[in-house]
């Protein structure tokens, strides 16, 4: 398929043209996991927004740190191989 | 003074309702804010997955020689199915698209297939978490009576 000619006209049938933005697709996934996990875990629902925001940031920063570490390992292996 | 009688639904009913409408096992226990939060989140995640990759990411097993072989054919359908009847509707729509002569060639590939598959599977797994928790809470209430 010619990507330049890709016309997004059929939502839910065609894939969303998000080829260049795929790392950002982790954000809604992490947000949903944080909200549901804390909704199940917290005794009071009033605690959920604060607790979910905290765990969401931990997940995002954890994934970013893991990505940076792995990118560094790849660079080092590239340099010495 | 006698305590007012509170009706506690049985745990299997809570689990069934939680599967039919994600999070609504909590609704039966009177925890409406929790029910609505989980319902909106799980259904949004599933819908977003179908929007990103197209509904073709949900594919039901076509029926192998044995139950195990048909599950092994489409293993992602198992966690997806935990999201409730929305998965059956999506699988039906996906099957219809496969039969359509014009639209059957539109399929997601690589990351745009993998990430939304993960979205829908995670939606199902989160609903399983909610089903287990709501059923456990219903069981605890029954024991406390």
Which secondary structure elements does this structure contain, and how are they paired or packed?
The complex is a heterodimer of chains A (81) and B (145).
Chain A: H1 26-41, H2 48-80
Helix pairs in contact in A: 1-2
Chain B: H1 11-20, H2 24-28, H3 32-53, H4 67-73, H5 77-81, H6 85-99, H7 111-144
Quick summary of this structure?
The complex is a heterodimer of chains A (81) and B (145). With 81 residues, chain A is mainly alpha-helical. Chain A is 60% helix and 0% strand.
List keywords for this structure.
heterodimer, A: 81 residues, mainly alpha, 60% helix, flat, B: 145 residues, 68% helix, elongated
| Most extensive contact | A-B, 22 and 36 residues
Biggest sheet record of chain B: none
Judging from the principal axes of the Cα atoms, what is the shape of chain B?
A: elongated
Spans of at least 5 consecutive residues with low confidence of chain A:
none
What is the typical, i.e. mean, pLDDT of chain B?
A: 90
Number of domains of chain B: 1
N-end to C-end Cα span of chain B: 16 Å
